[in-house]
Write a structure and sequence with these properties.
mainly alpha, about 0% strand, rod-shaped
Length: about 210
């Protein structure tokens, strides 16, 4: 028999629906993380020796958090249906941990944006100065539709709309890092609702047991 009645029963089913949506959002976060990690364009630019790996740190946080969100969403559904204080308490604790991870990914993406871009630009210019016809440089120029650097523009004629690769790097990674930031902070905000629901339902179950 259900331990909660009235308005708390509504909270119970709202929490169940929330957790199902939460599970879907975890799938989305995981998919975004995997896309950012295995995106052919990004891999071709950073998956080489001595390339800065700072960008992938935020991506790995997203992948880990997305996987945990899917798992926690499933157990949250079970806790809501069974009205288990233990499962709901564990759900709240896991949400709190994932909340921190998602918030960290979002803050990391925003605060380290300039440093990550600078690291990649430095890596590119160093490689370009050593050998401007290497496979890596050609890959950068093809992916970013750019040529040369600010200080060493291409000597060969190029289209007027072609930019230098340092500008191309900045534009490319700005878009990727904003995705990490917005997804991380957005999911973290939604988790606050889940934590409130789980605590309200958990307290209602405890109070109903005390009455009994």
């Amino acid at each position: 028999m259900s331990k909660v009645e009235g308005g708390m029963k509504c909270v119970k089913y709202l929490l169940f629906v929330f957790n199902f949506i939460f599970w879907l959002m975890g799938s989305f976060v995981l998919a975004v993380g995997l896309w950012l990690r295995f995106d052919p364009e990004t891999v071709s630019l950073l998956n080489v020796d001595k390339a800065p790996d700072t960008f992938f740190i935020g991506v790995y946080i997203l992948i880990g958090a997305g996987s945990l969100v899917m798992l926690v969403g499933f157990f949250g559904c079970c806790g809501a249906v069974r009205e288990s204080q233990c499962l709901l308490g564990s759900f709240f604790a896991c949400l709190l941990i994932i909340f921190g991870a998602e918030l960290a990914a979002g803050v990391f993406g925003f605060l380290n944006k300039d440093k990550i871009i600078k690291d990649v630009q430095t890596f590119y210019t160093t490689t370009y100065n050593e050998n401007n016809n290497s496979t890596l440089i050609i890959s950068y120029q093809k992916v970013l539709n750019c040529c040369g650097t600010i200080e060493s523009p291409c000597s060969e004629p190029v289209a007027t709309e072609t930019k230098d690769c340092e500008t191309g790097i900045k534009e490319f990674f700005n878009s990727k890092l904003f995705i990490i930031g917005y997804v991380g902070i957005g999911i973290a905000g939604v988790m606050i609702i889940g934590m409130i629901f789980s605590m309200v339902l958990c307290c209602a179950i405890r109070n109903s047991r005390e009455v009994i």
